[in-house]
Design goal:
The structure is a single chain. The protein folds into two domains: 90 residues, no CATH class; 214 residues, Jelly Rolls. Helix content is 16%, strand content 33%. Strands 4, 6, 11, 12, 13, 18, 19 and 21 form an eight-stranded antiparallel β-sheet that branches. Helix 3 crosses helix 4.
Length: 328
């Protein structure tokens, strides 16, 4: 049987322990002290812990590759009959070296944003991959408001001055869902929808918010804790989303000084329409990061790393902190 070169872990499992790091080489073929994350072209300098884990992984892999084909086949046969089937390599790894085997990361932190400090997270249009969505999409997040001081942005890709409106999901001051998108970047040719009812949110309480967008049909649906919320289109002029150069911002619309005051967790951007059942089934658990249509996924477990292979790691603006107060 062929040798297995590496374990079949998810991208998020790799990134959690820093194992899936490969040497970047310059044009002369010499190794340099930077690494790539899986699926990424962005080099970064590894930590001492990541170097230690990478060395341990290489040692474990060498032991596996030294096994006879019969021994490998034995591990494969045993592993496929486990309650949670896995490859023989994964079983060998987990059985022999549990200390270095990636396990699902619990939801341990949320990000805490203070409006008085204009805190938010962002990624520039030039650095993002897959977030310049022009068709159907969905956005999900957990949010806990500490005050209602302005229209609180969940996720936005907007620069108002210069007609750079792509998509914009926020909760308005009366406590309404609002979503808008533009087909040319301006406000004249946009589709804008808000929920029929206001006062949907209380302070200091976790809520799961979601929006799904059928762009060409101009059908927008809002979900609060998985329950469909009635809404009405106020403007129905756009049938596509403009690919603008605006940054993607989470928790703020910085050019208009509009910031969320409270906590955010489990922010997800999809390039597909999520069904109500999918939202309900997955809103209270962490995802793997390789789900179909998942363009960006931020757990905020003490960092702003994207858990997908798109590597849309966020910039922390103005010192946003983390809290152990989480929704699940």
């Amino acid at each position: 049987m062929p040798k297995v070169k590496g374990p079949l872990f998810s991208i998020s499992a790799w990134k959690a322990l820093g194992k899936a790091l490969i040497y970047q080489r310059n044009k002369q073929g010499h190794s340099v002290y930077k690494y790539h994350k899986p699926g990424s072209v962005k080099p970064f300098t590894p930590s001492e812990n990541q170097n230690t884990i990478r060395a341990a992984y290489n040692s474990i892999l060498a032991l596996w590759q030294a096994l006879s084909d019969n021994d490998k086949e034995s591990y494969n046969e045993t592993a496929k009959d486990l309650p949670t089937p896995m490859s023989g390599w994964n079983y060998f790894y987990k059985l022999k070296f549990p200390l270095y085997y990636p396990v699902p990361v619990a939801n341990t932190y949320s990000t805490d944003l203070e409006v008085i400090s204009s805190q938010y997270w962002s990624i520039t249009d030039g650095d993002q991959t897959g977030l310049d969505i022009t068709g159907d999409m969905s956005i999900e997040a957990w949010v806990k408001f500490e005050s209602f001081t302005n229209d609180s942005r969940i996720v936005t890709k907007v620069v108002v001055a210069g007609n750079q409106l792509a998509y914009d999901f926020y909760i308005s001051i009366p406590g309404k869902f609002v979503f808008q998108y533009s087909q040319d970047g301006g406000i004249a040719n946009r589709t804008l929808t808000d929920s029929d009812d206001d006062g949907l949110f209380n302070l200091n309480q976790w809520y799961h918010v979601a929006v799904t967008v059928d762009v060409s049909a101009k059908v927008i649906k809002f979900y609060l804790n998985g329950v469909l919320i009635n809404n009405t289109n106020l403007i129905s002029a756009a049938a596509s989303i403009k690919n603008t150069t605006a940054p993607v911002e989470i928790g703020g619309l910085s050019t208009e000084s509009l910031f969320l005051d409270g906590k955010l967790d489990e922010v997800r951007i999809w390039n597909k329409i999520r069904t109500q059942q999918e939202i309900q089934d997955n809103m209270s658990k962490e995802l793997v990061g390789d789900e179909v249509g998942l363009a960006g996924y931020w757990r905020f477990n003490n960092d702003g790393l994207d858990q997908t292979a798109n590597d849309n790691d966020l910039t922390n603006n103005n010192g946003a902190t983390f809290s152990t107060d989480v929704p699940f």
